[in-house]
Amino acid sequence: MRVLKFLCLSIAFISLNAMAQDQNQEEARKPGHTNQNKFKQLYDEFATPNMFRTGSGAPGPAYYQQQADYKIDLEINDETAVLSGNETITYTNNSPDELTYLWIQLDQNVRSKDSPSNDINSSNVTPALSASRFASSYMSESFDGGFNIESVTSTGGKALTHMINQTMMRVELPTAMKTGDKYSFNIKWWYQINNHVTDGGRSGYELFPDGNRNYVIAQFYPRMAVYNDVEGWQNSQFWGRDEFALPFGNFEVNITVPADHLLDGTGKLMNREDLFSSDMMKRYEKAKKSYNEPVVISTQDEAEAREKGRSKKKNTWTLYAENVRDFGFATSRKYIWDMMAVKLGDRDVMAVSLYSKEGNPLWEQWSTKAVASTLKSYSRMTFDYPYHKAISVHAKRQGMEYPMICWNYGRPDENGKYDDRTKYGMMSVIIHEVGHNFFPMIVNSDERQWTWMDEGLNTFMQYVAEQDFGEWYPKALSSGDAAYPSRRGPAKNITGYMGGNQDYIAPIMTKGLNTYQFGNNAYGKPATSLNILRETVMGRELFDYAFKEYTHRWMFKHPTPEDFFRTMEDASAFDLDWYWRGWFYSTDWVDIGLKEVKKYYVSSEPNQYAKNYAQSRNLNLDELKLVYLVEEDSDEFDERLRKGTSADNSPSLKEYMMDNFTAEERKTIKQPKYFYDITFEKPGGLVMPIIVEFTYADGTTKTETYPAQIWRLNDNEVSKAIASEKEIVSIKLDPKLETADIDTSNNSWPKEVKDSDFDKFKNKVKG
To answer: Percentage of the chain with pLDDT > 70?
Structure first.
């Protein structure tokens, strides 16, 4: 090593002195510029830490959040598909501010007949359409599924002044709320439930040919908006894409449906014994002790028998939930119902599935196991799932999440057959939607503003959970799949998007409504960026510790992007401002290439560089006793240099070794014979670590990773001097495709020559 240091110091000494003497003083006095360095800290972008949110990314000593508690009575008229409700909201003002009005979310108003939600999207006339598409586009009346608010009153029955602006309702308070005050008021309402299969949407019903419906109901009640330290009231309108920002609270909900319906939803079922048959209760008790296989609570035969009837009687299902941000439920007479227990820490949690016979055999095989596996994976990476159950409901063309319950697609054909796409699609959507219990149902980010904070983080975790699922349940994998074929997460899967037309790409830090490619921007890119951060930049140990710290700090609270960014750095001692800036605040892409590789040998003869240096300074080269390096492809190179060691080829080096090392030390000292000057270029804007795989003449390989900070002083190209005892025959960048490099054609030395499409065609014809 000391020989290598000597060589490097000698070369550096010559280079630095030459640069200092030859520096053009006029050139050094260029006009100033602002700091555009990729490693500039994010102080300009971040809010100043305060008593509410600290510089470490943790909640501050004055952090607060509001609470909204609900008592709701609901009824579904199965003949008219109308949902009516009467609710009492009790709002607690924990903020230091005085409130004179409250904002309520009326998300169903996005379906109002006069909603402007469709008018914000561009549309064109399509010259040829199917008759059904033409009729629905131009001949049918718009479905009117908005809220009908019958009354807004105090608990004493006095009407409260209120104003509705699209999907938001402002309620004037009779008396201003001070810190610590509670206020209760009533809202009575109803709306026409939409057919989500034909009309779209996250909530609604599927109508089956026999007239039965499967209801998956959410965003169904007027809900309190969030009030916080970041922006006051979060009263951004709901246009149909950006999801929700909600405070936590307790829910007491009574839901009246036909007596032959089964129902489950957010919260604990309080009157199970009144609603379950004795056989169902026995099966339920058995399921609570079954950890490996689901137990069927309501069988397919029982479901098919219920499908044939239309009970005129009614049952009321009572659910109670504590500390949840929302409420959803599903009901139908078609349900098959199964459950199994999942051990999480010292608690048992029930993994549950509700599905119609149309979902079998796929759903009975894998739905509940996917729920159970997801709870285990997410709990390992974050915190033990705190609720008592997680439900997967089969719903056509759906993928949506609420506390303790979610709707998921994936349906075999009419003969019960399904392909890999259907199977993996169903498993993945269940993993994803169940995972949303953690983000944002518990780590309660603002989906309306920062879609990536729930979808991106959750898609990253989905990738981890999918790989676990494939490992824990190998029978779930199709023949030939060694691992679960995750669609999002691996770096190579995002390169097409990142390297695409920049006119149609937005930074991750963009409101979801305003992104061009919603799936790639809110799901794919942030998930991939976190996977790269974990696997390549930070390493699993540092990443996992910091990620878990973030979830523990912000579970049951309202984090912002800055809280996430700051916590990840605070808990890892890893400066990541450059990473957040590049991946989240810009649309830059990764492209790092090998620009040039030069090979050198040690020589005893002064090279032209040394001669010029000595002559310009009137120095005697013999007195300097330098070690000379000559490039293999230069006129100064002599083939004899390939044979000797560095000491053999340089008297100065040999003399230095004799004077500074003992005979024993000289026996063990390394003598590199091959010297390489490798220049890396960066056509892409993102700074990333440089991962280099060296292949040697003896067939062995070695991988080196140079930190991203190597680009801090030169954003275009950097070089590394490599001294090696073995000859390097090839060099490859990012050999495992870890960095999302969009162009790998410049990643190899010698440059790989790939056949053009025409050459491939010719070779195919010849074959």
So the answer is: 94
- Tell me how far apart the 2 most distant CA atoms of the chain are, in Å: 110
CATH 2.60.40 fits 65-117+140-267, yes or no: yes
Per-domain boundaries in the chain: 35-64+445-588, 65-117+140-267, 268-307+335-438, 589-766
Give which of 163, 182, 23 is closest to 106, Cα–Cα. Answer: 163
The helix or strand, by DSSP H or E, that contains position 567, with its residue range, turns out to be: helix 561-570
Q: How many other C-beta atoms lie within 10 A of the C-beta of residue 48? A: 7
Q: Render pLDDT for 562-604 as a digit per residue (tens, 0 to 9).
A: 999 999 999 999 999 999 999 999 999 999 999 999 999 999 8
For range 184-212, the mean pLDDT: 96
CB distance 408 to 370 below 8 Å: no
Residue type, 147: F
DSSP 472: H
Residues 6+ apart with CB under 8 A from 208: 214, 334, 356, 358
Neighbours of 710 (CB within 10 A): 16
pLDDT tens, position by position, 524-559: 999 999 999 999 999 999 999 999 999 999 999 999
What sign does the CA torsion over 674, 677, 683, 684 have? positive
CATH of domain 35-64+445-588: 1.10.390
* Alpha-carbon distances of 401 from 219, 248, 583, 661, rounded to whole Å: 11, 16, 27, 70
Q: Can you give the pLDDT at residue 125? A: 86
Distance CA 675, CA 392 (A): 61
> pLDDT digits over 452-481, tens only?
999 999 999 999 999 999 999 999 999 999
User: Residue 252 and residue 71: Cα distance in Å, rounded?
Assistant: 5
Q: Give the pLDDT confidence of 700-723 residue by residue, as tens digits.
A: 999 999 999 999 999 999 999 999
CA distance 699 to 597: 19
Q: Region of 92 please: left (phi>0), alpha (psi -120 to 50) or beta.
A: beta
Question: Taking the alpha carbons of 561, 565, 568, 571 in that order, is the dihedral positive or negative?
Answer: negative
Compute and round to an integer the Cα radius of gyration of the chain: 33
Instruction: Report the distance separating Cα 243 and Cα 201, nearest Å.
Output: 12
Neighbours of 55 (CB within 10 A): 13
The answer to whether the CB of 228 falls within 8 A of the CB of 65 is yes
Q: Find all residues with CB under 8 Å of 118, minimum gap 6, and list them.
A: none
Q: How far apart are CA 119 and CA 100, in angstroms?
A: 33
> What is the 8-class DSSP label of residue 159?
B
Q: Residue 129: pLDDT above 70? A: yes
Contact 72, 254 (CB under 8 A): yes
CA distance 567 to 445: 15
SS3 track for 693-729: EEEECCCCEEEEEECHHHHCCCCCEEEEEEEECCCEE
Return d(Cα 614, Cα 456) in angstroms, integer. Answer: 60
> Which residue do the tokens 């590394």 mark?
720
Q: How many CA atoms, within 13 angstroms, populate the side-chain half-sphere of residue 520?
A: 18
Percent residues over pLDDT 90 in the chain: 79
Q: How far is CA 395 from CA 365, 376, 398, in A?
A: 17, 24, 6
